[in-house]
Structure prediction request, 127 residues.
Amino acid sequence: MSDEPVFLSVAQVAALHRFALEQHGGQDGLRDAAAFESAVLHPQNVWLYAQGDVFDMAAAYAFHLAESQAFFDGNKRTGMAAALTFLKLNGKTITRHTDELYAAMIAIAERQIGKPELAALLRSLCA
Prediction:
């Protein structure tokens, strides 16, 4: 196994959520603290048990934060912000910001794509 990635803490993801609401608006508030914590910790399970790469772990942040609906608003925005922040902390930067990221988060919310498809998209945007 290679070096352990730098994971985001619950507090860091909560700060990303607050920033997303400050920038783009929305109702503040945490609907389900346990679901939020579970979503934030899920990428560590990917590391420990699924042995995915950083893109799989980033996809886990985005997917589980969007899917959990732990916040009253901003779940998809927080998920993508967490994914991109995680990638940056681990030496990967999305080189092209496209509408594909937005479309992918909508597709996750509508259960049209899953983590593997999002991980593949993130990989392609870092190339």
